[in-house]
Amino acid sequence: MLVTGGAGYIGSHTVRELLRTGQKVAVYDNLSTGHLWAVPQGVTLIKGDIADRKKLTETFRQLEIEAVVHFAASSLVGESMTQPAKYYRNNVAGTLALLETMQECGVKQIVFSSTAAVYGEPEVSPITEDMPHCPTNVYGRTKLVIEGMLQDFAAAYDLRYVSLRYFNAAGALAGGGIGEDHNPETHLIPLILRTANGRRPQIDVYGTDYPTADGTCIRDYIHVTDLAAAHVLALKHLNGGGASRVYNLGSENGFSVREVIEKAKEVTGINFPVREVERRAGDPAVLVASSARIREELDWKPVYSDLDRIIRSAWAWERR
Question: Could you tell me the pTM of the whole model?
Answer without folding.
Answer: 0.95
